[in-house]
Write a structure and sequence with these properties.
The protein is 20% helix and 13% strand. By secondary structure, it is an alpha+beta fold. The protein folds into 2 domains: 145 residues, Glucose Permease (Domain IIA) (Distorted Sandwich), CATH 2.70.70.10; 137 residues, no CATH class. The strands form 3 sheets. Strands 1, 4, 6, 7, 8, 9, 11 and 12 form an 8-stranded antiparallel β-sheet that branches. β2 and β3 form a beta hairpin. α3 runs parallel beside α5, α5 crosses α6 and α5 runs parallel beside α7. The chain starts with 24 loop residues before the first strand and ends with a helix.
Length: 346
């Protein structure tokens, strides 16, 4: 069975602070034609009023500061920009920084109305620090004010589409069916940003879809930073070399996270239930046994999942329902699996 939930052309997600402190809007315009199709757009235009504060997206060092003597070939007016060399190894380019005196469009505002006090070449900044103002300098003089923001993966010049990273940074969701108000929002976005889970090609996450045992094991192995197996060992009779998940299943078996049933099967295509998920997470996190506290009304002490369920609950990894039930045999959906696996990362 093929792996599900895999998006095509999955974007690279870079953890950043959102670069503006104020009302704004933006769309994914990376690669859009510019100059009559002579070049592609290498950034994201974040539309905002002039003098909206611009922030450092990561810790790093400022470079390419214009001092007011540089003029645009588009209009002869001073322009302002800066490059942030991130400590994460990436470069971040901020363009169309303000060149006007407040309340005007005179192009004569000078560096004091372009940059925050103290910002100069070589200055160290921290993520979220105020560094500049939104404007329309350069070839944006005849457009609405905005910040042209570029993300260069591994250093300049290697631009990638920053749209999805900006969406997460702004506190919005990557997916059409995952909203910031959803209880699972932070878990899904964290796992997506860490490359542990993916959405579907239609832009949805499908939080209510059930998770198979193979899919869940892959999530756990990746989150726990366990290297996938590279040699097929035939640990389970129903996981052959043609199964997409065998490197993760065999890695989990070697790490002592899973066992087969009495027939030596793993049942990779079966949905994982809540009791199974609790046992897998307990082993992945190497949690010490802890059965203290009030027992769930539907988890008997002689149930095979009693100990892992209680241990995972006492470790804050799982929780029951308001009526004090756990529903151990209920199948786990993608939202619930995201929260469980998130606890490994945390």
């Amino acid at each position: 069975m093929a792996q599900t939930g895999v998006a095509t052309d999955t974007p690279t997600i870079v953890p950043i602070v959102f670069p503006l402190a104020g009302k704004c809007s933006f769309q994914d315009t990376f690669g859009a034609p510019r100059d009559g199709g002579k070049r592609g757009h290498e950034g994201t235009d974040i539309m905002a009023d002039k003098m909206t504060p611009i922030l450092a997206v990561v810790d790093g060092t400022v470079d390419w500061i214009c001092d007011g003597t540089q003029t645009s070939t588009a209009n002869g007016l001073p322009y302002y920009q800066l490059l942030l060399h991130g400590d994460d190894g990436n470069d971040y380019f901020y363009v169309h920084i303000n060149n006007d005196n407040p309340g005007t469009d005179d192009g004569m505002g000078g560096p004091e109305h372009a940059y925050a006090p103290g910002i100069a070449d070589g200055v160290r900044v921290t993520a979220g620090q105020f560094i500049a103002y939104v404007g329309d300098s350069g070839n944006a003089e005849n457009t609405a004010s905005h910040l042209h923001f570029e993300l260069h993966l591994g250093g300049y010049k290697n631009p990638i589409d920053a749209y999805q990273s900006l969406v997460i940074a702004q506190g919005k969701s990557l997916f059409k069916d995952v909203e910031p108000t959803n209880w699972f929002f932070q878990y899904v976005n964290k796992l997506v940003s860490d490359g542990i889970i993916k959405g579907y090609a239609d832009g949805r996450f499908r939080p209510d879809d059930l998770v198979t045992r193979a899919e869940f094991i892959k999530m756990v192995v990746v989150a726990a930073k366990i290297a996938p197996a590279t040699t097929f060992a035939a640990d389970f009779s129903d996981v052959g070399p043609e199964c997409w998940a065998w490197p993760y299943v065999e890695a989990a078996k070697s790490a002592g996270i899973i066992d087969g049933d009495t027939g030596g099967r793993f049942r990779p295509d079966m949905p994982v239930n809540r009791a199974e998920a609790a046992k897998i997470i307990m082993k992945a996190c190497a949690l010490p046994e802890n059965v203290a506290g009030t027992v769930f009304s539907d988890v008997a002490r002689d149930f095979w999942g009693y100990m892992p369920i209680m241990t995972a609950m006492n470790s804050g990894i799982i929780s029951g329902y308001p009526d004090r039930t756990f529903k151990p045999l209920k199948f786990t959906n993608r939202a619930e699996a995201s929260k469980t696996v998130y606890m490994i990362c945390k």
